[in-house]
Design goal:
40% of the residues lie in helices and 18% in strands. The strands form two sheets. A seven-stranded mixed sheet has the order 5-4-3-6-7-9-8, with helices on both faces. A two-stranded antiparallel sheet has the order 1-2. β8 (268-274) and β9 form a beta hairpin. It is an alpha/beta fold.
Length: 290
């Protein structure tokens, strides 16, 4: 692996940026310039305009060392979000760590679809299964001030991150539960259940980006041998926990719409919300009212 040179306080911003881009490109890291800029902004606690307005500013020894460490971590494949500890989602800034899946833009389709349905209810009770960083639950709570929002995860470390995010975003009314899917929830409890379950099969591991395989939590990415183990579990338990006429929304993989159609035969109003590429991304279904 090619690494970032340490020059001990002799490096100007533009030189640091060029060296970082070269290192990242040599190590086959995509979007090298964006990554180099993001990590330099993180180290200097500044915006992009500052980088290009002051190209001759010299880095201090501490800044250079921190930038070197960040670039070398990125060069070996560590996601930039785990290095900075932050990821934007639904217009909010979330803390992230290797304990949680990094929030993706496509998951915003899940939030958008849930808000559309929740607006029909006066005070909806919503449960987010597999909350991770809390990005879905907290985004819903932020946009739906009258909603009662619950967030569930099996990982204590993930819930710690989610609780930290709820405090930072002043959304402490969200209730967190350490449990497996919906175990412990009473029957006919929720109006809406949302979930971004792990839906990649172990058999598809070779198709997953190397940095995802190596650095993101395995239990948040892979859903059993075929990728449907957690999906089946969520559907089964959601049918018990939802009120009659309640809604289930799940993010799914790009090849799973046919599978979901078969698993949701007991449900009504089954449909799929496409992402920006037209690929079915969110499965939506309503529990029969009777």
């Amino acid at each position: 692996m090619h690494t970032f040179p340490l020059l001990r306080g002799l490096l100007q911003l533009r030189q640091a940026l060029k060296s970082a881009i070269d290192v990242l490109e040599t190590n086959d890291i995509g979007s090298s310039r964006l990554n180099a800029e993001t990590l330099l902004m993180f180290v200097l606690d500044c915006n992009r305009a500052h980088l290009y307005a002051h190209p001759e500013r010299e880095l201090t020894g501490d800044e250079e060392q921190r930038y070197q460490e960040a670039i070398n971590e990125r060069a070996r494949g560590v996601p930039a979000q785990y290095i900075t500890g932050h990821q934007e989602f639904w217009g909010l800034d979330f803390l992230v760590s290797p304990a949680v899946l990094i929030p993706r833009p496509e998951t915003e389709h899940l939030v958008e679809s849930a808000i559309e349905i929740a607006n029909v209810f006066e005070r909806p009770v919503i449960v987010d299964v597999g909350t991770g960083s809390g990005c879905v639950a907290l985004s819903l709570a932020n946009d739906l001030p009258k909603a009662e929002v619950h967030a569930v995860d099996l990982s204590p470390e993930a819930l710690e991150v989610a609780r930290a995010n709820s405090a930072r975003l002043r959304l402490e009314r969200v209730r967190f539960h350490l449990t497996d899917v919906l175990e412990g929830f009473p029957e006919e409890f929720a109006d809406i259940i949302v979930s971004n379950p792990p839906y990649v099969g172990e058999c598809e591991a070779d198709k997953v980006q190397a940095q995802v395989r190596r650095f993101e939590p395995h239990m948040a990415v892979f859903g059993g041998p075929e990728g449907s183990e957690l999906i089946r579990k969520v559907i089964s338990q959601a049918h018990r926990v939802l009120k009659p006429g309640g809604w289930l929304l799940m993010e799914i993989g790009y090849t799973q719409s046919s599978l979901l159609e078969g698993l949701l035969v007991r449900w009504q109003d089954v449909h799929f919300v496409p992402d920006l590429q037209g690929i079915p991304r969110v499965a939506v279904a309503r529990k029969p009212a009777q």
